[in-house]
Design brief:
By secondary structure, the chain is mainly alpha-helical. 74% of the residues lie in helices and 0% in strands. It contains 9 helices and no strands. The chain has helices at residues 8-24, 28-50, 53-69, 80-98, 112-132, 137-147, 152-159, 163-184, 190-199. α2 crosses α5 and α7 (152-159) packs across α8 (163-184). The longest helix is centred in the first third of the chain and has 23 residues, at 28-50. It is elongated.
Length: 201
């Protein structure tokens, strides 16, 4: 009898590995599922190195194309998520080297722990934008302006409202987002500090 996965992480890895098995057999739906699951966060991850959205998208798209093209000869992957992130990191490194750009430091001692930390931050960044889009209109607009780097005074002047209103809406938005992420990721101490670092509270 097959032993059930011991935790959520095991279940995710088991699902991803099963999808990879189906991809090796030419299953397009499984490929699409993995693509949709990882595309946004991998683009964000690539962008942190190449600092160009179009290039980041091209690198991730070419990675998935290569994954599909080589599906029959693909080596066995024991950790799909780690494999994807390391592959994208290497593609970014090659792009920077081949185009003689100023390199972003790449950690030589990339371990599962610090890779996991990076993955968590990239995934939360994507989810953060998605959840901001669901906030009430006034709160949403102010929060989007905030993450673009605008200060409260500028936001107030742009929207023709008082700074007190801006602060109130930011506080409201932050509390909604914190509650969501603390419920969605109860074991991740990184969430509160991560949100605070984004909104400069």
């Amino acid at each position: 009898m097959t032993q059930a996965p011991s935790n959520a992480k095991d279940k995710v890895e088991q699902t991803d590995n099963y999808l990879l098995q189906l991809i090796r057999q030419g299953d397009c739906m499984s490929f699409t599922t993995l693509f949709k699951k990882y595309y946004k966060v991998l683009v964000l991850f690539a962008h942190s190195f190449v600092k160009d959205k179009d290039v980041a998208e091209d690198l991730v798209q070419s990675f998935f194309c290569k994954l599909w093209e080589d599906r029959l000869t693909m080596a066995k992957i024991t950790n799909c998520k780690n494999y994807f992130y390391i592959a994208i990191r290497n593609r970014c490194h090659n792009y920077i080297r081949n185009n003689k750009l100023i390199p972003v430091p790449f950690p030589d001692n990339l371990t599962e722990d610090n890779l996991l930390s990076t993955i968590i931050e990239e995934e939360i960044s994507v989810k953060l934008i998605e959840k901001i889009q669901l906030l009430p209109e006034k709160c949403r607009n102010i929060m989007l302006m905030k993450i673009q780097g605008m200060d409260n005074k500028t936001i107030a002047a742009t929207l023709h409202i008082r700074e007190e209103t801006v602060r109130s809406q930011i506080h409201r938005g932050k509390e909604i987002l914190k509650n969501h992420f603390q419920m969605a990721y109860p074991a991740l101490w990184i969430v509160p500090s991560f949100l605070e670092s984004i909104f400069f509270f």
